[in-house]
Amino acid sequence: MEQEQVWIKQALGGNQEAFMRLVETYQTPIYNLAYRMLGNSQEAEDAAQETFIRAYTRLTTYDPTRKFISWLLSIASHYCIDRLRRRRLNLVSLEELPPWQGVASDMLQPEERLIENQTRDAVQVLLESLPAHYRIPVILHYWYDLPYKEIAEMLELTESAVKSRLHRAREMLVQAMTQADEDRKRMIMSALQTTPGRRC
Amino acid sequence: MPALKACPQFSEQMSLALDKQLSAREENELRAHLRTCDACRAQWDALQEIERLFATAPLISPPACFAVRVSARLAERESRRQIIFGVLALVIGAVVLGLISLASLGEVAPALYLLVTTPAAGHGLTVVTELLSTLESVLNALWLLAVACVRSPAAMICTTYSLIILALNVLWLRVLTSRLLRPVSHRA
Predict the structure, then answer these.
(1) Is the pLDDT of residue B63 over 80?
(2) What total of structural domains would you count in chain A?
């Protein structure tokens, strides 16, 4: 913690080397948040990089009484929410384009898409069923083990709003899981019906 | 998986129970309700499955050399900012300097025009004389200011004014040299 404060002070004085120590320390939690929010590695890397650039340029606004990681997570959260909002607006305006010209994850090369699909676990699929404003408190709660109060401060919400969003998000996750189960069952049933019976 | 909808009043209690936010009495009430309500029990089971899934989901690490790419992007951004800032300082400084020079060279302009339109040795001499006269006026003004700073009844005001002007000039020169001459990688 003391070392962290020294790096912050040095970075405030324009020392980029000191700031890079902070990047190395917090790159995994920030990248994870971006990946969990955006769902693909290209956008996640870009968002995580942008988070650190914003942190560096706004370092004078950092309040040393707060945890540095909380401040970084707050910047990353707001940036990812904005990015998802912009992506939704782009999707609306690109509706008439062919499907291969859609969101960034659809523009990947085949081998990149393979890696992408392998890393897309069940949790990620469930997360992506949530709107951005419900996804972010879920991520902050489950991966960073943050209490309602801290999540509320980061997202500039009241504690009761965080509580209610988490509750509503969990309901949506249950629905998404139920839907996924039903789809899976339907796929198995349709596969069984189309498979020709074995002859004696 | 829940096919029926859970009771709304207990649905929120379940979420709070997962976060250990219920009192012992509220938790007992919830447990008792779960024993009798199939829809709520199904939702509770699904919620616990989600809890298990999320609790075991790992933190995803960035690709190799992530920090190096952040550093490169930061340097690029800083360099762009410095160029914009430097150009702005240079333009503002040049405009101000130009205005001051134009004002003091006001008397030289007619002689210069005459020299350009009808080149003659006499006209060249007039331009040089006017330039020297302008220089004399500037030096005279500086001398008067220096005298005013020392002897005039408003010496304090004159000195403060001179110091402010001097400080602004030094500041502008420093901004120019630091923004334009120092390489980005040596800012540390």
Answers:
(1) yes
(2) 2
Q: Which of A28, A53, A141 sits opposite B59 (nearest CB)?
A: A28
Check CB contact under 8 Å for B59 and A48: no
* Interchain contact B188–A (C-beta under 8 A): yes
Any domain includes A113:
no
Return the CATH number at A139: 1.10.10.10
Does residue A136 sit in the same domain as residue A179? yes
CA distances from B69 to A174, B43, B156, B168, B187 (A): 39, 45, 55, 38, 18
Enter the ipTM.
Answer: 0.75
Averaged pLDDT, B20-36: 94
Closest CB from B2, B71, B75 relative to A174: B2
Tens of pLDDT, residues A46-58: 999 999 999 999 9
Structure tokens, A56: 């560096």
pLDDT digits 0-9 by tens, A100-135: 444 444 445 555 555 555 445 789 999 999 999 999
A18-22 CB contacts, 8 Å cutoff, 24+ apart: A18/B188, A19/A52, A19/A56, A19/A59, A19/B74, A20/B67, A20/B70, A20/B71, A22/A55, A22/A68
Nearest to A80 by CA among A54, A101, A118: A54
> Which residue range forms the structural domain that includes residue A36?
1-108
Does residue B26 sit in helix, strand or coil? helix
Rounded to a whole number, what is the distance in Å from the CA of A178 to chain B's nearest CA? Answer: 6
